[in-house]
Amino acid sequence: MAIMLLAAAFPPRDAYCEGWSFDDARPEWGKFALGIVSGVAGHELGHYLVATSKGYKVSHDGLSIVYPDAKFTRADQLQVSSAGFQAQWLLSELALRDSSAGELKGPPGNFGAGVVCAHLGITLAYTVYLKDQKQGDVVGMAHATGRSNNQIALALAVPAALDAWRLFGKQVPEWVPQVSMLYKGLGIAWAWTY
Known about the structure:
Layout: H1 2-9, E1 14-16, H2 29-53, E2 59-61, E3 64-66, H3 74-95, H4 110-129, H5 137-145, H6 149-168, E4 172-173, H7 175-192
Antiparallel strand pairs: 1-4, 2-3
């Protein structure tokens, strides 16, 4: 509801007029694939950096990053479990912005599109398939905050939906990137002041 009110407050100007498409990746599929791998690595690196900076041991259990014998505070659990999303939010902003930190006026390159697609894919996986995984990010954030897995999944889906619009949309209204960046910034600030 709040996002809809904010959206109505911004003037209906276009951020850019042509979206990226998978056809754009065909001549440079390697750059697109490298962007996807970089986005996934950035997500995992976010968990690793935050956990180790707080003194927690990091290990793997299959594809999951685990923290052996960790006795998390609620704040630490929120910060560590959300660190992957924080990292992918920052990476997607880098991919969708120009060197002056303004919104791109055209579609990103294939590497940047791959980074954003990794963000979208990870978010989709966590909101649909991994939402209830015991060692997953959503469960960790829900446990730390006392919110339900569904509430956390919905909160993660909002910036992904806005970023999908930014990447694939045509004539994207100027408020979309502004609301996306505001939402991500508030989410990161909330995690670090919890």
